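Hello,

Following up on my earlier ticket. Below are the two sequence lines again, exactly as submitted.
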Amino acid sequence: MEPRHIISVWVDNTPGVLSRVTGLFSGRGFNIESLCVAETMDPEVSRITIVTTGDEQIIEQIIKQLRKLINTIKVQDLTEVSHVEREMALVTVKAEDRSRAEVLRIADIFRCRVVDVSPSTYTLEVTGNYEKIGAVLNLLKNLGIEEIVRTGTLAIQRSKKE
Amino acid sequence: MKMTGAQILLKCLEREEVKHIFGYPGGVVLDIYDELTRTPQIKHFLVRHEQAAVHAADGYSRASRKVGVALVTSGPGATNTVTGIASAYLDSIPIVVITGQVPTALIGNDAFQEVDIVGITRPCTKHNYLVKDIKQLATTIHEAFHIARSGRPGPVLIDLPKDVVQASIVPKFPDGIKIKSYNPTYHANPRQVKRALDMIRVAKKPVLYTGGGIILSDAAEELTKFADTLQIPVTSTLMGLGGFPGNNPLWMGMLGMHGTYCANMAVSQADVLIAVGARFDDRVTGKLSEFAPHAKIIHVDIDPSSISKNVHVDVPIVGDCLDTLKQLNDLLHEMPAKDWAAARRPWLETVAAWEKDHPLTYTWSDTVIKPQYVVEKLWELTKGDAFITTEVGQNQMWAAQFYRFNKPRRLMTSGGLGVMGYGFPAAMGVQVAMPSATVIDIAGDGSIQMNIQEMITVVEYNLPVKIAILNNTFLGMVRQWQQLFYERRYSATPMGAPDFVKLAEAYGAVGLRATKPEEVEPVIKEALNTPKPVIMDFRVEPEECVMPMVPAGKAMHEMLLA
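Thanks for your patience. The regenerated structure is below:
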């Protein structure tokens, strides 16, 4: 599989900018695995975090094409630097009789929070990197997942330690 | 003093030194058109189809070095501009397209003649705007012009809702435009330039491969100086023709699918390929993996995303072509002189031999007009000094091959998008920019029918554009592919056409026809001496092919020669 890249894009916080970014990806045949957008500390600037895949040449093109957009302020490939990444999922799992305790055990092991309870289900909040979420979901799948919703990946560069 | 949106718009156009605009009115731009009656310093040309307005603005821009402007109404007016905008985008031509829009309160309601033109043109403009607040109007217009003409130029669209045009405020006109997220690199990194020059100086078989960037940055003189000094043979893309004199001994002709044998062989054998303001388009490279297989590649382009997009580049240089070539020439000047002609002799002799073995040529006929002959005669009788626009297909390739362009900004052609119907309206724009120049649209009988409605426009404004139709009764280039690759099954390529002479007369223009070779010269002479729009209908050999040809997907040295 082609390497996964997390790209942060700082853009003007104006209407239509997201569509310029996603249109660029679809128009040029680049992948988007996940995408998150929100305002930064500066209300005039939004930060988009895109997870994409591609060989070196494709990633270079993606970054250059993103920079070419007039509304783009800065682009950074976080995969190239030391960074922390997080993703969140809300999962409603069947929890009846025997499996009720098992769900809570898995939740405990992976430090999930229970955010909703019903007589037959638990809803868990799972946070972690991409792999951890995958591992939790894999275990919960056997118990019966009723519904799932995931954010895309967020990532931030680690601060210098000196 | 309070001004309406329409007044602010026209004031901004004046501040941008706009003298001519091409357009078509409609419901939501009535206020702008009304204001035009009180703005004598801007002359408006009423076209017959909005696509033509954009091509005219494109041609105008190429000839005049200014930003071309088109003004249209909402809905269909706006969608009709899309082909013109996409063509200008792919050819990096600075134009500003102003579209009317339904009032802001109606946007999103599927109102009459409403269309999301900003959404539609997002992928084919350099940038675009919907102005929802009259306070943003003046700044937006100046930003649009700034973006259109700077960096790698391109089309910018401004969508103006009717209520914004009708509202009024006391405007503030910005003194200068600064966009924090937009800052093109003009000055190339001197270290990279030095690296490139070191590589060129030790090259045994260098080739200069130049493109539209030379024309856009007005770098033709610096390019000629550089090539002459180092005695490097030059080829160019279609978009680059005229950027290097066609009569210079170092000129090899165009490269690519219908390039010369010499240029394609030289690129295939080169050890250093210097690409300046070109973008390694598939019509140039043929099979990518076998393009310039022995060459280290130096690539100069103002758009970083053009570099290493299609081929791996050894020395990337982000910068303006003019600036980079100046730096190269200055560096050369500081170095000890060397007898480059002597050093280059073996390579230039090889190149000359290719040229001699397989020059651009065609088979003469005493009875049937050869289309190449028409282009040659046009070149001869205009002394190579006309402004030539082309349509797309065989007419375009023969114009590129047989009109030896010596000066930049003399060829206007839809190179990237390949728009049939571009040439005639573009010629109209060129003629507006250059009122006393000879402007000729080299057309096919197919493509001229795509924007023929503009005949009345050139007659009405007395724009003496000349149209030379190479009439072969086919969609010639498609027919050529059918002949070569589909066993002559001419599916949907034989094509009827009106009597172009009568058509010209019906429009109030002059129509001339040549059916035999000896009639070609008198017809061209008469057309050139007629101070009115003229259609020349040349009945040419129906099944002539453009040669040489690199079949799509083949390597450049695998040319069909005849």
